[in-house]
Amino acid sequence: MAAPRNSWAEAKKKCRLNQADIQMAKELGMSPKSLLKNIPSRQEPWKLPVKQWIHELYEDKFGFVKQMNGGKQQPKEDDLPF
User: Fold this and answer.
1) Local confidence band at 48 (pLDDT 50, 70, 90 cut-offs)
2) Higher pLDDT, 80 or 12
3) What number of H helices and E strands is found in the chain?
4) How many domains, the chain?
5) CA nearest to 37, candidates 24, 60, 53
6) Is pLDDT larger for residue 20 or for residue 69?
7) Which of 7, 24, 27, 39 could form a disulfide with 32 if both were Cys (CB 3.0 to 4.6 A apart)?
8) Does any domain span residue 51?
């Protein structure tokens, strides 16, 4: 069995994720195996790519998506008061 660190590296490479995406997936309680299982195939055009899927789930749960640069989160256009 591969070490957990290697599993995350494999998921990062195969799912084309960056470190912020991996951190969001961990905060959502996902495992590398669940990310790899949810890579859409050609017969599953309704599935989002894993990166977009993580971002959507994270935004639904926490209300924002982490940015790579660590800066403040920008509000969505829907959240603007005017």
Assistant:
1) very high
2) 12
3) 4, 0
4) 1
5) 53
6) 20
7) 7
8) yes
